Amino acid sequence: MIDIGANLTHASFHDDVTDVIARAHVAGVSTIIVTGTSVEESKAAQDLASRHENLWATAGVHPHHARECNQGTLGAIKELAKHPRVVAIGECGLDFNRNYSPHPDQEKWFIAQLELGIELGKPLFLHSRDAHPRFSQIVKSVNPKKAVAHCFTGGRDELHAYVELGLYIGITGWICDERRGRHLLELVRDIPPDRLLLETDSPYLTPRDLHPQPKARRNEPAFLPHVLKAVAKALRRPHEEIAAETTRNATAFFGLNEPRPSAPEKRPLAA
Ligand SMILES: [Zn+2]
Q1: How far, in Å, from the CA of 151 to the mean position of ligand 1?
Q2: 165 to each of 158, 172, 190, 207, 246, how far by Cα in Å?
Q3: Which of 11, 37, 51, 154 could form a disulfide with 62 if both were Cys (CB 3.0 to 4.6 A apart)?
Q4: Spacing, Cα 251 to ligand 1 middle (Å)
């Protein structure tokens, strides 16, 4: 399986990230896309991905950090995106739930990153929280070729709008939350099977029905099969089938099978 969104550069993984990756592997989660949320975190994600065989990274700035963006930000992301281990631009988008950055800043840097993804021919890893319909309007007007609405938690109208826009949909352990994720049990059936992706969003969103709860309630990629089983049950389909389909979708979405130039540090010296 492929965890398409894990924040493995988060401080809570600082001491044991190698064990976390090993546990994921044992659990059948062979590939992890490490989310970049700022220029600094994206650089760290890229470094981590360079050191582990089946790790990849995104490069981008989360809407929470939009207020910290400046003229140099886009160039820095563009530079990071040249690395063969960086497979998407993001996470970027709009977060009108926490509102850590003013909306005009969020929109400006969201649009800029969408355009960068298009320019570089990279898929986009998008964050949208309480930002529909503005989020949809922007995606529609900039029109990226390939993008995923990661950690989808919204309602029916929002989901249908995203599907209509051609977005892939990322489902997390939110679906295991009997208080706020119940609606997703029905809604996942409206996601086209070839556009469904799974993720943990570690260390956040530990499935609430996971027993026993992990230490400090830290989520990790090894728990992705738990999310898979919840999704498969909601779809009333065998989890092996959903695992195969979502793995195929993620491989195609991020182009993981495509030949890549070797990493700059590994390039042989000219004779
Ligand atoms: Zn997010």
Answers
A1: 6
A2: 11, 21, 14, 29, 19
A3: 37
A4: 20
In this prediction the pTM is 0.94
Q: What is the pLDDT of residues 160-177, one digit of tens each?
A: 999 999 999 999 999 999
Ligand 1 centroid–CA 265 distance in Å is: 31
User: Which band of pLDDT confidence, cut at 50, 70 and 90, is reported for residue 259?
Assistant: confident
152 C-alpha vs ligand 1 centroid, how far in Å?
9
3-state secondary structure of 33: strand
Q: Please tell me the distance between residue 264's alpha carbon and the centre of ligand 1 in angstroms.
A: 29
Distance CA 192, CA 97 (A): 27
Local confidence band at 68 (pLDDT 50, 70, 90 cut-offs) = very high
Task: Say which DSSP state 202 is in.
Answer: B
Radius of gyration of the chain, Cα coordinates, nearest whole angstrom: 18
pLDDT of 3 strictly over 70: yes
- Please give the residue that has the higher pLDDT: either 263 or 2: 2
In order of 8, 96, 122, 154, 168, the CA distances from 130 in angstroms are 25, 5, 25, 8, 18
The total number of residues shown for the chain amounts to 271
